[in-house]
Amino acid sequence: MAVCTQPSGLRPSIVFLILAALGLGACSSEEPAAPAATAPERSGVSTARLTPDEIRSRVAKVDGDAIRNPRPGDWLTHGRTYDEQRHSPLDQINTDNAAELGLAWYWDTGTTRGLQATPIVVDGVMFTTGSWSAVYAHDAVTGEHLWTYDPEVPREWGKYACCDVVNRGVAVWKGRVYVGTLDGRLVALDAGTGQPDWETLTIDPTRPYTITGAPRIVKGNVIIGNGGAEYGVRGYVSAYDAETGEKAWRFWVVPGNPADGFEGEYMERAAETWRGEWWEVGGGGTVWDSMAYDPELDLLYVGTGNGSPWNRHERSPGGGDNLYLSSIVALQPDTGELVWYYQTTPGDSWDYTATQHMILTELIVHDERRKVIVQAPKNGFFYVLDRTNGELLSAEAYVPVTWASHVDVETGRPVENPAADYMEEPVLTQPAPYGGHNWHPMTYSPDTGLVYIPALDIPFMFGQDNAFRYQPGEWNTAVEMLLAAPPGDVNEELANRALVKGHLAAWDPVNQREAWRVQHSGSWNGGLLSTAGGLLFQGRADGMFAAYRADDGELLWETPAYTGIIAAPVTWEQDGVQYVTVVAGWGGAFGLASGIPPQEGNVIREGRILTFKLGGEARLPVPPPLDMGLPEPPPLTASAETVAEGEQLFHAYCSVCHGAGAVSSGVLADLRYMDEQTHAAFEGIVRGGAYQDRGMPGFSHVLEREQSAAVHAYIIKRAHLAHELRELEIAQAASDD
Ligand code: CA
């Protein structure tokens, strides 16, 4: 493990390059798992209290009433309460004492992929998830590991996860813990032991569906969707009886082949907004993350995803809104019947999902108190809707937006910028497919009246993929990913990287304007938590975990986690002590695909659960210095034509996992720094599937031997440029001194 860490005394800009080189190459996933439980501090509470019977009996109390009116110290559902505000009434930790926060305990997950889960805490028992859909139970106070459930997801299924083999958490209900697995199963576990009570397959396993979202439980039904729209699927959300696993209903987001008949009138209406043969690729509209429930109105709100393929000219030639893509749909929770919908991006062509976090609250809009649902979806506009009927009350851009000038409140529709259509010419567009905001949870503080958004500032060059043809199970966006490749010039490459940023936006939802922001040093920062103590908690991509004042954004405390944090924190209380927990582990779509090297403080790949309290005295091991040796790339012997062909193929088949330009962003090995052995084994890995059990399947079905050699030549070319880049960085660092 010693090789995965930050060297002391090196300049950041050099450090991140070297980490990209070594941290990634040296700390690959075949390393043995880190030792499990570490509970350096005991609270004096006997661990015997957490027998399986005791755990089961605590979780047995969780039902709809408990979730509606949780104990202040509990965190019983994904967004803490059904309204998904992620605001805690706890105030023992507050603006006066946040600087006294310290680590209470930590636990190594032994994984090296992204961690995105929101832990659930029930009366001092914590349930969370890790990579490959594993579920962990801990004594929340002591950190004592109680059990792990590993669903043994076949590693080759990881290829279908556009955005890493992540999981955003469990649901708990009446003595059981529920998880959706990457390969499409919904599993009910005995909360006491972690043993499965029942399991059901929620997908057609011949299609590349994946589950990464956290289930919600509403009126005794477990609600779960899935992802896969980048590869070619038809989106839906389903409800299963929490007791038996029997399917209660399914809501399809987009229509199938009309010749097969429609699942309901709502699908017939939707089909009128589509053209061509969209069902071949699938149409998309996957429900991969957000939901909220209003018990008073008895409405379940579900966010739907982008089109499949992204490019609307290929998906629905001749136009159409393509219902119900990129929408908020309000469903009757007992039947899945559609009550209303609001489409944020009609005829989406940019991967602008509306699967982002939705929050329910009441706001005074035009002097009238309204029950609202608010969302900051990927498309860059912050929406306030009347949640009784889906009426648009207001929408304003919360990040720079180039694809539309504004949203017309009268029609409820965005006014598209005609120049944003990339059919003829590539168009530099904001937001990127990463969105102005992605899955990272927001929070709403009723105390400040502000919604806090983990915002992304990332431009992206969209262009038509003129060679697009549907290849089942492959990347099927009909967007030319080659345009994301870095330029051949190292100075331009550095300049492009500098355009990619992120910030924490404090958004006033009534006046639809930014109250203030905290500018971060890089993009893809963590989800948010607000508390009655006047605090905002956020982990960052630079490896720090921080507390800010919720009223003005002042930084009050921060501590290194040594890995980028993307998940949202939770807070809870047990035996009169307030704690804050966050799951730390860098990854997700940006960590795989962006081609932006990891930041200075993001130095280890191993994931951890971190729990803090006032006066906590546990210490994380400080990563030791790393070995500075870098392998020399082999000589570049291929022709420029071959390298260009390899660049094109790399961005068609490899870059969504291995990074634009073969630059690792910190999750997988940096291919520019492959060692001699890996170079020698290249063909066997890429076409032969030698690393299939590590999640790298063979590509012989789409790549000929000469094509794989061209990809190899391109990577060698990039390795030579990486050395040039490093020399430039060292020279710049020296001239700064
Ligand atoms: Ca997507």
Give a verbal description of the structure.
The protein contains twelve helices and 40 strands. By secondary structure, it is of the alpha+beta class. It has two domains: 14-614, Quinoprotein alcohol dehydrogenase-like superfamily (Methanol Dehydrogenase, Chain A); 640-736, Cytochrome Bc1 Complex, Chain D, domain 2 (Orthogonal Bundle), CATH 1.10.760.10. The strands form eleven sheets. Strands 1-3-40-39-38 form a five-stranded antiparallel beta sheet, with no helix packed on it. A five-stranded mixed beta sheet has the order 2-34-35-36-37, with no helix packed on it. The two termini are 32 Å apart. Residues 1-47 have low confidence and may be disordered.
Show the helix and strand layout.
Blueprint: H1 12-26, E1 37-38, H2 52-60, H3 64-68, E2 87-88, E3 101-108, E4 120-122, E5 125-129, E6 135-139, E7 145-149, E8 171-173, E9 176-180, E10 185-190, E11 196-201, E12 216-218, E13 221-224, E14 236-241, E15 247-252, H4 265-271, E16 283-284, E17 291-294, E18 299-303, E19 307-308, H5 312-315, E20 327-331, E21 338-343, E22 358-365, E23 368-375, E24 381-386, E25 392-397, E26 404-408, E27 413-416, E28 427-429, E29 443-445, E30 450-457, E31 460-462, H6 490-498, E32 501-508, E33 513-520, E34 528-531, E35 535-539, E36 544-549, E37 555-560, E38 570-574, E39 577-584, H7 588-593, E40 608-614, H8 640-653, H9 655-658, H10 676-680, H11 682-686, H12 705-736
Parallel strand pairs: 2-34
Antiparallel strand pairs: 1-3, 3-40, 4-5, 5-6, 6-7, 8-9, 9-10, 10-11, 12-13, 13-14, 14-15, 16-19, 17-18, 18-20, 20-21, 22-23, 23-24, 24-25, 26-27, 28-31, 29-30, 30-32, 32-33, 34-35, 35-36, 36-37, 38-39, 39-40
This protein binds calcium ion (CA).
